[in-house]
C-alpha cells in the first residue's frame, strides 16, 4: 500500500513541515513498512499540474494537509482525484479539516477520513487499519461516516516528544526555501481569534534536540529558519538558552547570512535576555511581536493577556540596538475597536518604530472562540476562506474598506522600506499622525484607480505629486529625499523620470567614483549617484556592495558636490 502525503503552499518560497512530521510518524509507529511519497505544490499552479503531480506516484492513499490558503484548491481537486483513482482512500487533516470535520464529510463524498490533532501516531494507526481492513472506530482524532451518520472522535492527548521530521529526503526537497522548525507545541495563551491555544498548555521538546535541529537547518542552504513555536519566549530561561546557543554558534557552525525568525511576546522578555539579544550579529534574528491592539478592553475581551507598558518598553530597547528586524502585528476587526480607537492603536504601534507594522484583518476561523461568539458582536464575514470579517458592531463595511486601502499604502510606503527618508521628513513637516498620513494618501491612490499592481516608478510619481502639495512640504526637498530613497533600494542606480534633473556634472562625478577603485561590485551597477539641490548642493552616493542586513537598504553617504568635480583637488 503506497501513501502520498501532500502539502499545497500559498507560495513556492514556503516549505512544508506537516507531511514530513507525518512521514516520521509512519517510519516510527506504523506496523507495516508502508511506501510513502511527499508531493508539494502551490495554489498558484494550474489544477491540471497539481492533479498530475498527485497522480504520478500511483498511490493507494492520499493524505492532504488543509489550511485556509489551500482548502478551496483541495476541494476542487478531490472530485478529479477520485475519478482518476476510484479505489483510493482520501484522508484530510489540518485546521481547515479537523475543526469542521462533520460538515466536510457531509459536503465532500470524496473524503473518506479526517484526522484531528497531532497525526504522528494516528495516521500510522489508520493506515494499519486500512491495510488489514479493520479501521479502529475508536481511534482518537478520527472522523468518518458510519452509515448515514458521521462519527467524530476527540483528538488524542499527546505527552511524548514526536519523532524528528528532518531526514535526507527533507533536505533534498528544501532547495533553499524557508525552513520551519518547532521546538515546542501548544501555546500558553487562549486568544479568542486563534486556534493555537485551544488545547491548553505547552509541550517543550528537549533542548538537545532543538539545538541539533537548529544547526541542521542553518546548514541546509535555507537563508531563513522560521521557528513556528507560537510564543517562543513563554519559557524565558529556555528561550535565553537557545538564543545564547545561536549567538555563540554564529559564524562558526552557523554560516554567515542565515537568519532566525521567532514569534515572541515582547512583554515576557526579562532584562537578562534583552541584554543578550543586544549581542546578536546584525540581521541574525528577526522578531515578530504580536500586539494586536492597544485597547485594554479589547485585549481583555479576546482573552489576550499583555502587559502593554512593559511590551512598549521592551520593544523600544530591542529596536534601539539596531541589530534585529522587529515586526509588530495589529488586527483590525476585534471587539470594541471602532475606527477612532483602531487609529489610536495604529498610531501608538507606529510610534514604537518597528521595521514592519503588519495590519491584518480578523479571520473568523473554524474552531475559534470568536467565531462561536460572532452573533454577540454582530460579525459578518466571507463564507469562503480566509473567512475575513466584513463588518461588525464597531466597524462598518465602509470602515473596513478604508482600512484595506490604508493597509496597501502602509505596505508600499513603510513596510517596503522604500520611502524611509521621505516618511521621516513628511511626519516632521506635515504634523500628520501616522494613521492620517497613510489614510490620506490611500484615498489619493484610490482616486487613481488603486495601487496594488502599480509599478514602483508610477507609485513614486504619485507620492511626489500628492505630498508636494501638502502644507509645510518643500517640493525640492521632497524630490531630493525620494531620490535618496530610490538609490538605497535597488542596485540599478536608476531614478524615476519624475525625479530626474539634467545636470552635466553627473558624468564627471561618476567618472571620479569609478576611478577611485572603491566600488568593485560586478553584479549590477557598482553604485548609484544623484545631485541633491537643497541644503547646499551635495552628492549622494549609494554603495551597492552590501545591503544592511536589518533594513535591506544599501548604505548612502553625502558629500559636498565640489569635492567630486575635476578641477577640485580633493578625491572621491
Describe the structure.
The chain has 572 residues and is of the alpha/beta class. The chain folds into 4 domains: 2-152, 3-Layer(aba) Sandwich (Rossmann fold), CATH 3.40.50.280; 178-395, TIM Barrel (Alpha-Beta Barrel); 396-473, no CATH class; 493-564, no CATH class. The chain is built from 21 helices and 20 strands. Helix 1 links the parallel strand 1 and strand 2 (35-42). The chain is globular.
Short description:
The longest helix has 19 residues. This protein folds into four domains: 151 residues, Cobalamin-binding domain (Rossmann fold, 3-Layer(aba) Sandwich), CATH 3.40.50; 218 residues, Aldolase class I (TIM Barrel); 78 residues, no CATH class; 72 residues, no CATH class.
Features:
572 residues; alpha/beta; TIM Barrel; 6-stranded parallel sheet; globular; disordered C terminus; DUF4080 domain-containing protein
Strand content: 15-25%
Radius of gyration: 27 Å
- Stretches where pLDDT is under 50 for at least 5 consecutive residues are 568-572
CATH architecture of the largest domain: Alpha-Beta Barrel
Q: Provide the residue-averaged pLDDT.
A: 94
Set out the fold topology.
Layout: E1 2-9, H1 18-29, E2 35-42, H2 47-55, E3 61-65, H3 71-84, E4 89-93, H4 95-98, H5 101-107, E5 113-115, H6 122-132, E6 142-146, E7 149-152, H7 168-174, E8 179-181, E9 184-187, E10 201-204, H8 207-218, E11 224-227, H9 236-249, E12 259-264, H10 271-277, E13 285-292, H11 296-301, H12 308-321, E14 325-332, H13 339-351, E15 356-361, H14 369-372, H15 374-377, E16 380-381, E17 389-391, H16 397-415, H17 420-430, H18 434-447, H19 456-467, H20 475-489, H21 505-516, E18 527-532, E19 538-543, E20 556-560
Parallel strand pairs: 1-2, 1-3, 3-4, 4-5, 8-11, 11-12, 12-13, 13-14, 14-15
Antiparallel strand pairs: 5-6, 6-7, 9-10, 16-17, 18-19, 19-20
Amino acid at each position: 500500500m503506497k501513501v502520498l502525503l501532500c502539502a499545497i503552499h500559498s507560495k513556492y518560497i514556503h516549505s512544508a513541515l506537516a507531511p514530513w512530521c507525518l512521514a516520521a510518524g509512519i517510519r516510527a509507529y506504523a506496523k507495516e513498512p508502508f511506501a510513502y511519497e511527499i508531493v508539494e505544490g502551490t495554489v498558484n499552479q494550474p489544477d491540471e499540474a497539481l492533479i498530475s503531480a498527485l497522480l504520478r506516484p500511483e498511490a493507494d492513499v492520499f493524505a492532504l494537509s488543509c489550511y485556509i490558503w489551500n482548502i478551496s484548491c483541495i476541494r476542487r481537486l478531490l472530485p478529479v482525484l477520485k475519478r482518476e483513482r476510484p479505489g483510493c482512500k482520501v484522508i484530510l487533516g489540518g485546521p481547515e479539516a479537523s475543526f469542521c470535520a462533520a460538515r466536510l464529510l457531509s459536503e465532500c463524498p470524496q473524503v473518506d477520513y479526517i484526522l484531528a490533532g497531532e497525526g504522528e501516531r494516528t495516521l500510522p494507526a489508520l493506515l494499519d487499519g486500512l491495510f488489514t481492513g479493520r479501521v479502529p472506530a475508536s481511534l482518537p482524532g478520527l472522523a468518518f461516516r458510519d452509515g448515514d451518520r458521521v462519527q467524530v472522535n476527540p483528538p488524542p492527548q499527546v505527552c511524548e516528544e514526536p519523532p524528528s521530521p528532518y531526514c535526507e529526503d527533507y533536505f533534498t526537497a528544501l532547495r533553499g526555501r524557508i525552513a520551519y522548525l518547532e521546538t515546542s507545541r501548544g501555546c500558553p495563551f487562549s486568544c479568542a481569534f486563534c486556534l493555537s491555544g485551544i488545547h491548553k498548555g505547552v509541550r517543550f521538546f528537549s533542548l538537545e534536540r532543538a539545538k541539533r535541529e537548529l544547526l541542521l537547518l542553518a546548514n541546509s542552504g535555507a537563508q531563513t529558519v522560521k521557528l513556528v513555536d507560537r510564543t517562543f519566549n513563554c519559557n524565558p530561561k529556555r528561550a535565553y538558552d537557545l538564543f545564547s546557543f545561536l549567538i555563540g554558534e554564529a559564524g562558526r557552525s552557523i554560516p554567515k547570512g542565515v537568519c532566525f525568525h521567532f514569534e515572541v511576546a515582547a512583554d515576557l522578555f526579562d532584562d537578562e535576555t534583552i541584554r543578550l539579544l543586544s549581542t546578536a550579529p546584525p540581521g541574525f534574528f528577526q522578531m515578530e511581536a504580536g500586539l494586536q491592539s492597544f485597547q485594554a478592553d479589547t485585549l481583555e475581551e479576546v482573552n489576550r493577556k499583555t502587559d502593554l507598558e512593559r511590551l512598549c518598553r521592551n520593544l523600544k530597547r530591542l529596536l534601539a540596538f539596531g541589530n534585529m528586524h522587529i515586526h509588530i502585528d495589529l488586527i483590525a476587526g476585534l471587539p470594541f475597536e471602532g475606527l477612532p480607537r483602531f487609529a489610536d492603536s495604529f498610531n501608538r504601534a507606529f510610534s514604537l518604530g518597528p521595521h514592519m507594522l503588519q495590519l491584518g484583518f480578523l479571520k473568523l476561523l473554524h474552531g475559534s472562540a470568536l467565531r462561536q461568539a460572532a452573533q454577540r458582536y454582530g460579525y459578518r464575514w466571507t463564507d469562503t476562506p480566509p473567512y475575513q470579517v466584513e463588518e461588525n458592531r464597531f466597524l462598518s463595511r465602509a470602515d473596513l474598506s478604508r482600512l484595506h486601502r490604508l493597509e496597501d499604502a502602509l505596505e508600499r510606503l513603510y513596510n517596503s522600506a522604500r520611502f524611509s527618508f521621505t516618511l521621516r521628513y513628511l511626519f516632521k513637516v506635515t504634523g500628520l499622525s501616522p494613521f492620517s498620513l497613510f489614510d490620506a494618501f490611500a484615498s489619493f491612490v484610490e482616486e487613481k484607480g488603486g495601487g496594488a499592481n502599480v509599478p514602483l516608478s508610477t507609485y513614486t510619481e504619485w507620492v511626489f505629486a500628492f505630498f508636494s502639495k501638502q502644507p509645510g512640504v518643500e517640493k525640492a526637498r521632497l524630490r531630493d529625499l525620494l531620490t535618496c530613497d530610490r538609490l538605497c533600494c535597488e542596485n540599478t542606480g536608476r531614478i524615476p523620470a519624475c525625479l530626474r534633473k539634467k545636470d552635466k556634472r553627473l558624468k564627471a562625478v561618476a567618472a571620479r567614483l569609478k576611478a577611485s577603485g572603491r566600488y568593485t561590485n560586478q553584479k549590477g551597477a557598482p553604485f548609484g549617484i544623484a545631485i541633491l539641490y537643497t541644503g547646499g548642493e551635495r552628492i549622494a552616493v549609494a554603495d551597492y556592495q552590501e545591503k544592511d542586513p536589518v533594513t535591506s537598504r544599501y548604505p548612502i553617504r553625502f558629500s559636498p558636490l565640489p569635492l567630486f568635480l575635476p578641477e577640485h583637488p580633493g578625491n572621491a
